[in-house]
Amino acid sequence: MKPSVKRVLIASAAGSAVLGGVLVLLPPDTEEAAPPALGPAGRAMAAVGAGVPAALPDLAALIGEREAHLRAHPGDDHSWAVLGSALVARGVRTSDVTDFPRAENALNTSLRTRPAGNPEALTGLAALADARHDYRAARKWGELAAGQAPKRWTSYPALIEAYSGLGDAKAVDKALESMRELNAGATARAIAGQVYRDRGWRENADAALSDAAALAETPTERAACLHRVGELAWERGEPAQALRRYDAALAADPGHHPALAGRARALASLGRNAEALQAYRSAFARQPLPEYALELGELYEALKLKPAAKAQYDTVRARVKQESAAGVNDERLLGLLDADHGDADAAVRRLTAEYKRHRSPQVADALGWALHRAGESAAGLKLVTKAMDKGPRSALFAFHRGQIERDLEYEGAARRHLGEALRINPYFSPLRVPVAKKALAALGEPEEGGPEQVYAPPGEKPAPMPKPRPPKRRAP
Fold it and tell me: Nearest CA to 79 among 21, 38, 123?
């Protein structure tokens, strides 16, 4: 008889053995033996264990099964880790933040039951901290998980997200390289694509994410990859192409709610405002993220529907309050809301504290913009410049910088960066695009002269251009 064929399946079934946090089924010693079909809970457990998105019905089945199992076997540390990770995954997918405290309790119970050698629980805690936007805690748990299981590739995605949230590009590169040495599948390529996007390497990001979509093994995983490809298309000012990608994501997985918000964004860019409003409302009803309410409010404001816009801004604050009770940090979002639609001084205080915790380009840009709105434009310019240097190729970043430079009367630089915002994505915001166009029209055509004249600070006489020297004559 030929050597036994061992098929690794992550599932909950009798006759399985635990190996490195993965349940391994050992089928009979025959080549013809096919692996048993996985049920909903088994599929979700396979996805969670492999670090890929799971379908919502499968997650619900896995959570129910693990809870029933743990009532009879409360000392099963592995099942506590699986339950906690599944709750994190579902909370992220649905924005039901009540799953997060339950996940924290399950993961901590797993650690108490097995304090040493438990990378599964540590990875779950890192993912939970990322979901709460607490990137310092995510780094702590992720580094512990990677230290305990450096050859376990699923230890790295949460750590990469944590380093990105902290603005630590070198650590992101190191963790990404470690992950790619261990795995070259769809999820690893999707994560690499997101890193490339954050660096402004759009072609690399698009290639990696397109490869990830082609390699995806489940509809849910494929939908997540297609959504990210759609986001890239929208960010580079191609709303029609983005809309096709979002539609493809929803065709693969109708429960992929971020694609609904993406559709809304693309529809608004195409001037299909009634459809966009409906898509935003549907996205928020299914996944009530405060950023969806903020985008919807700004679309209402752009359409001169100010009472409806104010109602959405109030919804943002109410939703942030609910998420805060579950440990979610929405300070950056709330700071942007205050800077643009509320109290700019409060935004500065909020974002200054956030920047001390998380020095990412996104927080630097938000704080710089809030400082400008509060009358501290020179200080704000330093931060938005840093955000553009370190972060993604963002139309919003360029818009913020151009508006601050215009306020400081750096007309050449303002013209350059406002124009750059519209070149990056001519549809980046229904509220800000008209402002950028109006500002560019007011600035007019650039002055004659070289860079010294165009970019000279206001009130400062540029140094005279040196006169060209006549060429030296060579001796005969």
Answer: 21
